[in-house]
Design brief:
about 325 residues; 3 domains; 13 helices
């Protein structure tokens, strides 16, 4: 969407490697005890971290050990390469007995995975006319929050909601398919970009917390726990029903503004009037300024913007924009 030569079109190497291996559960229990072996644990420390959890109906313990890599990742086609147990043991040689016991049980040969993300060159937007990107194509995140797939499901819910709305206005002859898609994808970008880009950056930052590199937490275990907890709750406590509602409202608002900009004097104003009443009474405080499409965003010259009386030089507040639109409606109806 942005061109193959544009750096935002490619994820970049974070200089982190994930060593992955499986350990038979009986050996893990013997080495570190049943509770630790059969429950998920994260071990934090200087410049690296290691997590493990049971898999295969608790018959195996899955181990993922993250370590820094000062070199560049040369193979742009393959992100997995062979590694050895000795490689992992060197990284954690000075760590405590639990971690060292785990690394000693890893198989002689294992895999190392290169960690890439889009934090260095984030995409400026997720939509361009009738094209939209979502999931890793829009916001490839490192795995340190374990939330990339879940965020992608949120994207899918938002997109399916907006596709349904777009299909509805096409069926009602309120817009062409091309225009409906453009408005839907514009809305998706507004609704989803802030949260998903936060995840990309937070996934990068939380790795620094795990590895005692973050200036806010350092090696203080209490500070690390509090910061990890704060970031985790922001992911877990997401109100997807509110996202669906906001998607509906934002899309409907764009449809109304699009019709006004194009000079449609017969536009159905019920949505606009209801939003104006609710906003004035404070009932829709979750509708942000970012959920409103300005005339400049609509990129249409069907009617000169100046004739609409909207200020394209700055983005007004929700109430200001609604009141402006209401005035436009009244002037159109009395013309």
């Amino acid at each position: 969407m942005f061109g193959s030569e544009n750096p935002v079109s490619h994820s970049t190497y974070t200089h982190k490697i994930a060593y992955r291996g499986l350990i038979p559960m009986d050996k893990a229990v013997e080495a570190i005890g049943e509770y630790k072996a059969k429950n998920q644990h994260m071990h934090l420390g200087p410049q690296a971290h290691l997590l493990h959890f049971p898999v295969a109906n608790q018959k195996l313990m899955n181990v993922v050990a993250f370590a820094p890599d000062p070199e560049e990742w040369e193979d742009s086609e393959r992100f997995v390469a062979p590694a050895t147990r000795e490689d992992v043991e060197k990284v954690f040689a000075s760590w405590g007995p639990t971690v060292r016991s785990i690394t000693r049980l890893l198989p002689d040969e294992l895999d190392k995975w290169a960690v890439f993300d889009s934090s260095t060159f984030p995409v400026p937007c997720y939509n361009k006319n009738r094209v939209c990107i979502a999931g890793d194509a829009a916001h490839a995140a490192a795995p340190h929050h374990g939330a990339g797939a879940g965020i992608g499901v949120e994207d899918a819910l938002c997109l399916s909601t907006l596709m349904e709305k777009a299909a509805s206005i096409v069926q009602d002859n309120k817009a062409s398919t091309a225009k409906a898609l453009k408005l839907a994808f514009m809305t998706f970008n507004t609704i989803r970009r802030e949260r998903t880009q936060w995840l990309v950056q937070s996934s990068h930052d939380v790795c620094e917390i795990y590895e005692w590199n973050h200036p806010k937490t350092g090696s203080d275990p209490e500070k690390c726990f509090e910061e990890i907890q704060r970031r985790s709750f922001k992911i877990w406590d997401f109100d997807f029903e509110d996202m669906v509602r906001e998607s509906h409202e934002s899309f409907e608002w764009r449809v109304v503004i699009q019709a006004l900009v194009e000079g449609d004097h017969k536009v159905d104003l019920s949505t606009l009037e209801q939003m104006s009443r609710d906003t004035d009474s404070g009932e829709t405080d979750s509708v942000s300024d970012d959920s409103i499409a300005t005339p400049a965003e609509l990129e249409t010259s069907a009617l000169p913007i100046e004739e609409l009386g909207l200020d394209t030089g700055s983005k007004p507040s929700t109430i200001e924009t609604l009141n402006q639109a209401s005035q436009i409606v009244q002037s159109i109806e009395t013309a």
